[in-house]
Design a protein that fits this description.
4-stranded antiparallel sheet, 8-stranded antiparallel sheet, about 325 residues, globular, 12 strands
Length: about 325
C-alpha cells in the first residue's frame, strides 16, 4: 500500500495528524499507550533473560554480550529473537495495542519480521552509529518499520533512540553502508552523515510504555549511556503484508512472515526506488554491535564508517 492508501483507512489508535507526521518526518513517538500490566510482564521476562545470560561466557546466537560481561555482573547488548525465548514477548506482539499502532502506519494487514531486545547498560552502554535498517533486510517496498517499547523511563542521558527527520525521503540513490573498500560496515560514511546535518537530529526519550516508531529508511542511531540507569529497548520490525523480503532474514526468527493483523497479501507491492543489498546473510550475519566491535579491535579509523552519534549528535 502507498501512504495515501494507508491514510485513507480509518485509524485504530493514532490520530490522523500523528499518521501524517510519521509519513512526513519518518518517525513518531507515542506516549501513554502501553499499560502497567504489559510493562510488568515484559520487565519480568527481560529479567529472566538477563539471569540466563549469567551462564553465557561469550556472545552466541541469542546473547550479544559486552566485553566485560560476567556471571556476577551481566552486561548485555542484545537478545536476538526474544519472542522465542519467553512467551511474554510473543504475547505482547499479538495481544497488545502495539500492532494496532503499527497497522495505522503500514496498513490494516500487518506482518512480523523479527524482534530484538537491545540494552544500553548503565555507565558505558555502547553507542550505535548512524544507519538505516532496510539494507540489512531489503523488501519489495519501504513499509517496514521498527517499533520500540521503553520498559522503563528513558531520559536524554541514557542514550535514547535518535532520528534525523525526513531522512527517509532522500532523493537519488540510497546512501551506502559499505566502506570505501567495499566492506559491509552497516552504517553510513562520515561525509554522508555531515550532509544530512545531524545537528537537527531528534532524540526520542520518553516514559515507560512509550513507543518509538521509525521507518526503515530513516537514519537513526544512539549515543553511549554513561548514566547510572540502564536502558532496555524492546524492538519489533513489522511490515505491511504486501512487503516481501528480497534476501534471507538475518535473524532467522521462528515467526518470520506471520500475519499479526488482517490478512495475507495476494500480490506484492513494489516500490520503484532501488534498495541497497547487504552481504549474503546465508553465509554469516554480523550485528551492528559486532561490526562496531570489530572495527574498534582492528583500529579502523572513524572515516571508515561514521562518527559515533555521541560525537555528531545522538542516535538507537
Amino acid at each position: 500500500m502507498t501512504p495515501e492508501q494507508i491514510l485513507a483507512v480509518p485509524p485504530r489508535v493514532l490520530t490522523q495528524a500523528q499518521r501524517e507526521f510519521y509519513f512526513a518526518q519518518g518517525y513518531l513517538l507515542v506516549e501513554n499507550i502501553i499499560g502497567e500490566d504489559w510493562l510488568r510482564q515484559l520487565r519480568a521476562a527481560t529479567q529472566e533473560l538477563v539471569e540466563r545470560s549469567r551462564q553465557v561466557q561469550q556472545s552466541d546466537a541469542i546473547f550479544d554480550l559486552e566485553p566485560d560481561h560476567s556471571a556476577a555482573h551481566p552486561r548485555l547488548r542484545r537478545v536476538s529473537n526474544p519472542t522465542e525465548h519467553h512467551p511474554a514477548f510473543w504475547a505482547y506482539c499479538n495481544d497488545s495495542a502495539m500492532p494496532d499502532v503499527v497497522a495505522d502506519l503500514v496498513g490494516p494487514d500487518v506482518k512480523f519480521h523479527h524482534s530484538k531486545l537491545n540494552f544500553k547498560w548503565q555507565r558505558g552502554g555502547e553507542a550505535v552509529k548512524w544507519h538505516y535498517d532496510i539494507s540489512f533486510w531489503p523488501h519489495t517496498n519501504y513499509s517496514p518499520l521498527t517499533v520500540g517499547t521503553y520498559l522503563y523511563d528513558c531520559g536524554p542521558a541514557q542514550g535514547p533512540l535518535g532520528v534525523i527527520p525526513r531522512s527517509h525521503r532522500l532523493d537519488g540513490p540510497m546512501l551506502s553502508q559499505y566502506d570505501a573498500q567495499g566492506r559491509w560496515v552497516g552504517c553510513l560514511a562520515e561525509h554522508d552523515i555531515a550532509a544530512l546535518d545531524p545537528a537537527r537530529a531528534v532524540y526520542l526519550d520518553g516514559p515507560a510504555g512509550a513507543l518509538t516508531l521509525h521507518n526503515c529508511r530513516t537514519v537513526h542511531g544512539s549515543a553511549r549511556n554513561d548514566s547510572d540507569l540502564g536502558r532496555p529497548l524492546l524492538l519489533y520490525t513489522l511490515t505491511s503484508a504486501d512487503a516481501f523480503p528480497y534476501t534471507v532474514n538475518p535473524l532467522k526468527p521462528l515467526h518470520d512472515q506471520q500475519i499479526l493483523r488482517g490478512q495475507r497479501a495476494r500480490f506484492a507491492h513494489h516500490d520503484p526506488r532501488p534498495c541497497l543489498l547487504p552481504p549474503d546473510w546465508s553465509q554469516a550475519y554480523g550485528s551492528i554491535f559486532s561490526l562496531q566491535s570489530a572495527a574498534a579491535a582492528t583500529g579502523a579509523p572513524p572515516s571508515r564508517g561514521v562518527a559515533a552519534p555521541g560525537q555528531t549528535g545522538h542516535g538507537e
